[in-house]
Amino acid sequence: MTRTPDPIITNDFPVNLAVAARPAKLLACVRQVLPLPFYELPTTGQMRGDPVQFHPHKEDGLGTDADWDKWGEIDPYFGVLSSDEYRTENLNAESEAKFFRSGEEYIGQTLDEIRSHLDKNYHPERSLDFGCGVGRLLIPLAGLSKEAIGVDVSDHMLAEASSNCQKRNIQNVSLIKSDDDLTKLTGTFDLIHSFIVLPHIPEERGLALIEAMLRHLGPGGVVAIHFFYRCDAPKATRALVKLRYALPIANYARNLIRGRPMREPAMQLHTYDLEAVISLLSGAGVSSIYLRPYSEQGFQSVALYGQKSDATAPK
Q1: Which of 49, 90, 234, 274 counts the highest number of beta carbons within 10 A?
Q2: Rounded Cα–Cα distance for residues 315 and 312 (Å)
Q3: How far apart are CA 86 and CA 256, in angstroms?
Q4: Rounded Cα distance, 185 and 56, in Å
Q5: What CA–CA distance (Å, rounded) separates 269 from 263?
């Protein structure tokens, strides 16, 4: 599950989507301003907020797992943030400090968004970072929470995350190897978080993972996930990219042309149906949603923040 650089917030997004709303109202806004067929739900039952069921083939996306683990082995920090200053051969004390500082800043912004648009008194006690990589975002989450869980599919990334926590004497972090059903996760979380991870997972598999994560969202808990919803590249370009994902020799040729190591893994990028994601959240009891738009390298994306109804709140 490889990652792209931090996105830049822009204004080229339907303004009436960048507001907090209940899922049903938000879906109506989506249908008004975003072109079909990108955002059609298969059944009216799902429009009412019934859970969407996804059953991906177990082999789907396993190439991305192998690619991500390879990045963890050869170039873990570049795999997380794709800037040359984070290449293994370029990494030094200054660039590493900048790398982790960017994580602290992003988590600070995430908490600001949640408190500004969903819950002004929000404070997570148990947090999950899905696709934690080397711990860039997990480490600041640990500073905000009594317990923080990092999940990743790469053994190499988990080993680096463990080392980074030990260097900082962080003792409230647990690291878990991911699988498609998240079978090793236990209990519920006040915050379920994933940033620049889902775009690198094929949509059907990613939707199933979102559904699995949501089963662990506690009452009053917040989900904060980032994903692409549209690719603006020409169809011919997209076809060539898919060919590179499917045929390693095509990726080798591209790497050689660009002066990169021939066997450097591809960083796959995938888009998601925005309505399907919102419907999943609604089916899991998320009652308020806020969308923050981004535009990045030919893709349109959102950071989606949603809060589950608090069953203990007075009626």
Answers
A1: 274
A2: 9
A3: 21
A4: 20
A5: 18
Q: What does the H/E/C string look like for 71-93? A: HHHHCHHHHHCCCHHHCCCCCCH
**CA nearest to 68, candidates 197, 195, 165:** 197
Q: What is the pTM assigned to this prediction?
A: 0.79
Contact, 41 vs 275, CB < 8 A? Answer: yes
Instruction: Indicate the residue type of 227.
Output: F
- Measured CA to CA, the distance from residue 26 to residue 170 in angstroms comes to 39
Q: What is the pLDDT of residues 180-206, one digit of tens each?
A: 999 999 999 999 999 999 999 999 999
User: Three-state SS for 287?
Assistant: strand
- Other C-beta atoms lying within 10 Å of the C-beta of residue 283: 19
* The token pair that represents 289 in the structure block: 């949603």
Q: Fill in the amino acid letter for 163.
A: S
| d(C-alpha 179, C-alpha 182), whole Å | 5
Higher confidence at residue 44 or residue 173? 173
- d(CA 293, CA 302) in angstroms, rounded, equals 5
- Retrieve residue 142's tokens: 């640990």
Q: Which long-range contacts (CB under 8 A, 24 or more apart) does 212-216 make?
A: 212/180, 212/181, 212/182, 212/185, 213/128, 213/130, 213/182, 214/280, 214/281, 214/284, 214/286, 215/284, 216/128, 216/182, 216/185, 216/187, 216/188, 216/189, 216/192
Pairing of strands 299-308, 126-130: unpaired
Name the class of domain 15-308.
alpha beta
Structure confidence at residue 232 as a pLDDT band (50, 70, 90): confident
Beta carbons within 8 Å of 309's beta carbon, 6+ residues apart: 219, 220, 285, 286, 287
Residue 292: φ, ψ to 5°: -110, 120
